[in-house]
Amino acid sequence: QQQVKQSPQSLIVQKGGISIINCAYENTAFDYFPWYQQFPGKGPALLIAIRPDVSEKKEGRFTISFNKSAKQFSLHIMDSQPGDSATYFCAASALTSGSRLTFGEGTQLTVNP
Amino acid sequence: DTGVSQDPRHKITKRGQNVTFRCDPISEHNRLYWYRQTLGQGPEFLTYFQNEAQLEKSRLLSDRFSAERPKGSFSTLEIQRTEQGDSAMYLCASSLRGSGGFEQYFGPGTRLTVT
After folding, report:
1. What are the C-alpha distances in Å from A56 to residues A8, B26, B55?
2. Residue A73: what pLDDT?
3. How many residue pairs from chains A and B have C-beta atoms closer than 8 A?
4. Pairing mode, if any, of strands A62-67 and A56-59?
5. pLDDT at residue A27 is higher than 60
6. Which of A10, A34, A57, B59 is the most buried if burial means most Cβ atoms within 10 Å?
């Protein structure tokens, strides 16, 4: 059972544009939602994360929007740069049950110069 | 560099051989996780330790897989009688339980190829 669904599978954006990646989850016990960035041949790097007690969190050019009632959350990358070209994964975990992460399928982002 | 480290970075083995991977977490982190990632997919949870205790194992972790974390420091993941389906990137992550810390930090991974 896929507990975290991510879309789109791939995304092409022009430099300076906004990249938007969406995730939906099923398990209402999830209470921690991080986003990871992964370059080829590297491990995932934590970008930004949110808990369900807030609806939005911003760090630099990265913003998470969270909708608890819809069980959805999204990553917005403002002023996208070619260096942002990577695979992005959303994830979710239940902190009361070991905090193991359940990942989405990933979004391949390409930012054209 | 005080991040998570993994060794080796790449391993090529023949089907039926045993392999062992090592993970060194961030020094003060008490939780250590193993994940497996196949091409084009997100990482999948395998198992995790809090200090030296193995607290959870995924059903993905067959009898051929075993993990240890002696003395709550580094961890090893062993795969016995490897199969071609074991080819994947094996990722280790660590976190600090308590003090409000939830973040998991990943190492660079070990790429396993079974021929």
Report:
1. 21, 29, 33
2. 97
3. 60
4. antiparallel
5. yes
6. A34
